Amino acid sequence: MAWSVVMAWHLDLHGPDSAYSGLGVSFSRLEILRIVLARTEVSSSTVMAEMGMTRNGVTRHLEALRNAGLISERRTTHPRGSGPITYWRADRGDVWDAVDELGQYLLGPR
């Protein structure tokens, strides 16, 4: 395969015309999922800090990921007793299943 053809297959994940944007997928949502996958559990506050987003913005993305079955939440009392805190986690197997289902939908069975 010619190098120019190989380069054409490279997916730009960051630009407004990226492959994911073309499918209507939010890059912020993908980044949040990546952050959750990188840890056993992560608080909403940690996601906010890493993303540089407001609580409302992060919550909207986390809830969408939860509703899609990609992450789950655990609500508890803050370790310092200062109120409630929500921790998020993702099961890598569930995420791989979703990616595989998308691939099969788009490309057909392997």
UniProtKB/TrEMBL annotation:
CDD domains in the record: HTH_ARSR
A Pfam match: HTH_20
Lineage: superkingdom: Bacteria
Signal peptide: none
Protein name in UniProt: ArsR family transcriptional regulator
Source organism of the structure: Subtercola vilae
